[in-house]
Design a protein that fits this description.
Layout: H1 3-16, H2 20-29, E1 35-40, E2 56-62, H3 66-75, E3 82-86, E4 100-106, H4 115-125, E5 126-137, H5 143-159, H6 169-175, E6 178-187, E7 197-205
Parallel strand pairs: 1-2, 1-4, 2-3, 4-5
Antiparallel strand pairs: 5-7, 6-7
């Protein structure tokens, strides 16, 4: 791991993913989580303040980057619910089938190399009746913006730790065996349009 990836990129991601427009999105989706929660791509723990402690029993945070988990641990010493951290890729979920009430994934499906495999793992660990809560940026609806996303994406991935601008988030979720029950989408105010089209909502396994 190079100097940039180890020391600079985690700070850039923490800053950009903690911006005001993104915090508003986190506030919309995170409080819906309940029971035993698996957060895939917990990163630096930016969602932790938004969980509803009255509804959450435990949060299991999965992320491959130890540097990001170090941020998260500093954010979680006084939380009123238990938090466990697993330094693993999103495709490697070491939990029993049907053991999780809520899977939460925010601004991570853009970066996980095999997002389909990760979503299949999320589906496997959800209990019957459990929900996937998601909030992601991705493929824009406007052709002109999509063209810019496609042009910029190869360079964006290099500087953004593998982040993709142009993934079809609803398509990935549906393709992994989920039924999307709630889907909202818009360009985030204050964010650049090529990186600011957001999808958020809830899905259940078929």
């Amino acid at each position: 791991m190079g100097f940039y990836s180890r020391y600079i990129l985690p700070k850039i991601i923490d800053l950009s993913c903690g911006s005001k427009p993104v915090r508003r999105q986190r506030r919309n989706i995170v409080p819906q989580a309940e029971g035993r929660v698996l957060e895939v791509g917990i990163g630096s723990g930016l969602n932790l303040p938004f969980y509803d402690a009255a509804k959450v029993e435990r949060v299991i945070g999965l992320d491959p980057a130890e540097e990001m988990l170090a941020f998260a641990r500093r954010r979680s010493p006084d939380l009123p619910f238990a938090v466990e951290y697993l330094a693993l890729d999103g495709e490697d979920i070491p939990l029993e089938a049907a053991s999780i009430d809520t899977v939460l994934v925010t601004y991570a499906l853009c970066t996980i190399p095999d997002a389909g495999a990760a979503l299949a793992g999320m589906r496997r660990v959800l209990k019957p009746g459990g929900r996937l809560l998601f909030c992601e940026h991705g493929k824009a609806p406007d052709a002109a913006v999509r063209r810019w996303q496609d042009r910029i994406n190869p360079y964006w991935k290099r500087i953004g730790g593998g982040c993709n601008l142009n993934r079809d988030i609803p398509g990935l979720i549906a393709g992994a065996g989920f039924v999307i029950e709630d889907l909202q989408q818009m360009y985030l105010p204050g964010a650049p349009r090529f990186a600011g089209f957001n999808y958020w909502g809830a899905a259940r396994p078929k």
